[in-house]
Design brief:
122 residues, alpha+beta, 5-stranded mixed sheet, 4 helices
Length: 122
């Protein structure tokens, strides 16, 4: 089983390990963060008004996916969506987005938007 929880410092370390190079970082976050990515940069997004979330397996509590939410009134924006590369192709992104929609609603969003970097086909 899977569940959603607030992102932890340990989750930030895991997510950083999923981003192998500068090009992958750009697709993950656009120009907002710099290479080499570190957990401190990702954690600092909380100070900029983004709430970080992790999709985890119940048994291991291991993060399998990540996204953050930012709010402007009742409009939420989902960003920095990523799945552990070793678990891609298993339908986890679909599950993650469902959790993101539910979380945004529970935090008061009446609209959810997704920003995607041009050429991010995956």
């Amino acid at each position: 089983m899977f569940r959603l929880r607030r992102r932890t410092a340990t989750d930030c370390e895991a997510v950083v390990s999923w981003i192998p190079d500068k090009d992958a970082l750009y697709l993950f976050t656009g120009p907002r963060l710099r290479w080499p990515l570190d957990a401190a940069q990702l954690s600092a997004m909380e100070d900029a008004g983004y709430s970080g979330w992790a999709l985890v397996e119940d048994e291991s509590n291991k993060p399998l996916g990540h996204f953050d939410l930012a709010f402007d009134g009742e409009v939420a924006r989902i960003g920095r969506v990523c799945i552990d590369p070793t678990r891609r192709g298993q339908g986890l992104a679909h599950l993650l987005v469902g959790f993101a929609v539910d979380q945004a609603r529970s935090l008061g969003a009446s609209e959810l938007r997704l920003n995607v970097i041009v050429d991010n086909d995956a």
